[in-house]
Amino acid sequence: MLAKRIIPCLDIKDGRTVKGVNFVDLRDAGDPVELAEIYSREGADELVFLDISATEQKRKTLADLVYRVAEKVNIPFTVGGGISSVEDVDILLQNGADKVSINSSAVKNPQLINDLSAKFGSQCIVVAIDAKKIDEKWVVHLVGGKIPTELDLFEWAKEVEQRGAGEILFTSMDNDGTKDGFANVALAKLSEDLNIPIIASGGAGNMQHFTDTFIEGKADAALAASVFHFKEITITDLKENLKDNGIHVRL
Questions:
Q1: Mean pLDDT along residues 79-92
Q2: Among the ranges given (1-5, 50-54, 163-167, 170-174), the one the predictor scored with the smallest mean pLDDT
Q3: Which CATH architecture has domain 5-244?
Q4: CA–CA distance from 128 to each of 63, 95, 113, 150, 156 (Å)?
Q5: What is the residue extent of each domain of the chain?
Q6: In whole angstroms, what separates CA 206 from the centre of its chain?
Q7: Is the model's pTM score more than 0.90?
Q8: Taking a C-beta distance cutoff of 8 angstroms, is the pair 107, 146 a contact?
Q9: Residue 101 phi, psi dihedral angles, 5° rounding
Q10: 83 three-state secondary structure
Q11: Between 12 and 15, where is the model more confident?
Q12: Catalytic residue numbers?
């Protein structure tokens, strides 16, 4: 059985790590390079770096900051934000990223998933999906959750897999920052529908939430931000707790 992964997320705005609730009310959470180094040392399985304002500001991801973070970590490193071409991915991989995460650009140009997968391999391509429940339907949103689309979460996820994505990072906008737990019902359905790994994101508030998303949500990995940034949970303690609850993790 594959070990379940714990993934801290660095949401970057203006070169700083930030964290909000339901994608708004952002507050400063520290220096991304320092945090990355701490998480790598504590035993994080991977690290995700999302330049959350790159798409909205119509600019590229901060490649120099990516390079500085990559220098400090020895774990797989995924970078997203403002990626819209093969050339963008080339630059990020050259600066130390191991994988890239695309979101809005994938919806606007689904062929991009095929192109990136063909060029770099599916294992390098993570498609992030931000969705919110509206009238009992999970609606995909773009540009940091600001723009609703006509897309259904589950239909889009299936298309993403067919086009060559290696993983899906699903963030429930309803759960994000609430610390009330992950959207496990939706996660379980994604896991049943797809054959690629699903990363759970949005809602982690305590250690039990991680156990729940691995068991009830059938997630392959769990991503969190504020509980790690503000020292509410350490990765070392979390992994020991998961192991005690019968979850297979790398210690």
A1: 92
A2: 50-54
A3: Alpha-Beta Barrel (3.20)
A4: 19, 21, 11, 17, 11
A5: 5-244
A6: 18
A7: yes
A8: no
A9: -115, 125
A10: coil
A11: 12
A12: 11, 130
